[in-house]
Design brief:
Elements: E1 2-9, E2 14-21, E3 26-30, H1 37-45, E4 49-54, H2 66-73, E5 76-80, E6 92-94, E7 99-101, E8 106-111, E9 120-125, E10 135-139, H3 160-173, E11 183-186, E12 204-205, H4 206-212, H5 221-229, H6 239-245, E13 260-261, H7 263-271, E14 275-278, H8 282-287, E15 289-290, E16 294-295, H9 302-309, E17 316-319, H10 325-334, E18 340-344, H11 347-353, E19 358-359, E20 362-364, H12 366-375, E21 380-383, H13 387-391, E22 399-400, H14 403-409, E23 419-422, H15 427-438, E24 444-447, H16 450-456
Parallel strand pairs: 3-4, 4-5, 5-6, 10-11, 13-18, 14-16, 14-17, 17-18, 20-24, 21-22, 21-23, 23-24
Antiparallel strand pairs: 1-2, 2-3, 7-8, 8-9, 9-10, 11-12, 15-19
Helix pairs in contact: 3-5, 9-10
């Protein structure tokens, strides 16, 4: 009998799967996150033995848990055949039409290149190879409402147009030949940078996607290539690092106790090049924080945005609300940012007792921002949203510098000029403002409510970039 469970990690918009046959106890994990206890616990609870970890492709947006599962269970690691020879660890490869028999439950492999050259999809047959498919695990080939972007750095050496052409054929010649009632189980949902129109739904059917997914509408290959390569967001800076690490025999994830650091220890680490990463909510951060620290609120897409504003391998000191430190460290580990050297002990008292090390972040309401714009001729306004957002409307005179590109472009800006940053609603602009201040900018504010607040107050209207 088929055992099937989806695990959805909202902070990374990531879906992974445990698929097994309860009659034989054989199971596989597909596209696992790096902290793997949940798969092992569920397998144990249902009498399943994990025999394979199947990766639908080399992921760029998170560090996969294939090494962790293999080390703890002895499972083999399986990729599509185009991955052969490109990993530092042993893998088994599968080709189009290959089957993995778990018992009555049979997994049939489809090679579906396009998002990456080695991408595969996995058709789940619940009662033998001739049974009607229950569904298909599509990885990043087919999402709910979208398809995988073909331009990410995990595909170094292949052009976006070339991969988009392969994706067109993979979708039409492979996935769309499946029955309309077959379920679609993707690797990502809304919020992921691996596509641009992903749905908040985490399961669909081939038939529903055939009817509603813009990329599956009747069109020529050239039209498809144009549709899927245009309007993509800027990929976070850490994507190339994660894609590379997923090929390597890297260090395993360990849930160790965080070292509690005194303020003098934190200041010394900061002087030596560590990033002080403050995961508190941005209004709390604005009221008082350690000078030079960078704010990425844990309540949002914490790991993804942290990976946009610091380089992989940088030592990290956490400042966090008490009780959230381990969650912050785990989220960073999911993208491979393992070098968390400790956490500031009792930050509230540290800041109260040592106000000489505390800064406040200037936050402007829309009226205050308009007054500043009127009275400050040399004001620099920076829009840190993605290009597609900017195209829909921007504040006149603003300079577009998406958050993922800001760290690399910081030297293009005048550190002494009065500067205001904004995003759509305020989360990303708080990150950007703190990043600029950590790099020596002397007069930085962020716009409360972002472009949404500005455009709806009467100050904005419909100014278009």
């Amino acid at each position: 009998m088929l055992f099937f469970r989806q695990y959805y990690l909202g902070c990374l918009s990531h879906a992974s799967y445990l698929v097994g046959d309860t009659s034989t106890g054989r199971a596989v994990v597909v596209d696992p996150q790096r902290d793997v206890d949940q798969y092992l616990e569920d397998a144990d609870a249902h009498g399943l033995t994990i025999v394979h970890v199947i990766e639908t492709h080399f992921h760029a947006d998170f560090l996969s848990g294939h090494l962790e599962i293999a080390e703890r269970t002895g499972a083999s690691i399986v990729y599509g055949r185009a991955a052969e020879g490109s990993t530092q660890f042993p893998i088994d490869t599968v080709a189009d039409g290959d089957v993995i028999e778990l018992g009555d439950v049979v997994l049939r492999i489809l090679e579906t290149p396009g998002h990456t050259p080695e991408s595969i999809s996995i058709v789940v047959h619940p009662n033998g190879i001739d049974s009607v498919p229950e569904g298909v695990l599509t990885g990043d080939t087919l999402f709910i409402g979208d398809v995988g972007r073909p331009d990410l750095l995990s595909s170094v050496g292949r052009t976006a147009d070339e991969l988009a052409g392969q994706l067109y054929r993979s979708l039409r010649d492979k996935l769309l030949t499946l029955p309309d009632e077959a379920k679609v189980w993707p690797a990502h949902g809304a919020g992921s940078a691996c596509g641009k129109h992903l749905s908040t739904e985490t399961v669909s059917t081939i038939g529903e996607q055939r009817r509603t997914n813009y990329a599956l509408a009747p069109m020529s290959e050239a039209q498809f290539v144009d549709a899927v390569t245009q309007g993509q967001s800027v990929a976070p800076m850490y994507f190339s690092y994660a894609a590379s690490q997923n090929r390597l025999q890297h260090e395993l994830f360990h849930d160790e106790e965080l070292r509690q650091l005194t303020l003098p220890e934190v200041l010394e680490l900061q002087r030596d090049g560590a990033v002080v990463l403050d995961s508190r909510e941005h209004s709390v951060f604005a009221a008082g924080h350690l000078r030079g620290s960078v704010n990425v609120g844990l309540g949002g897409r914490f790991a993804e945005y942290a990976g946009e504003v610091m380089r992989a391998g940088t030592p990290i000191v956490l400042v966090a609300e008490p009780g959230t430190e381990d969650e912050a460290r785990t989220r960073l580990g999911r993208i491979g940012f393992d070098k968390v050297v400790g956490v500031l002990a009792d930050p509230w008292h540290a800041f109260v007792d040592h106000p000489e090390h505390v800064d406040r972040l200037s936050r402007l309401s829309v009226p205050a921002f308009e007054t500043l714009r009127r009275d400050t001729p040399d004001l620099v306004v920076i829009d840190v949203r993605n290009p597609g957002e900017v195209e829909a409307g921007t504040i006149p005179g603003a300079r577009a510098m998406s958050l993922p590109s800001l760290l690399e472009r910081v030297d293009e800006l005048d550190r002494d000029a009065p500067t205001v940053v904004y995003c759509a609603g305020g989360y990303r602009s708080s990150i950007a403002a703190s990043l600029l201040r950590s790099h020596g900018f002397t007069d930085v504010s962020d716009l409360i409510g972002g472009y949404t607040a500005w455009s709806t107050t009467g100050s904005g209207g419909s100014s278009v970039a």
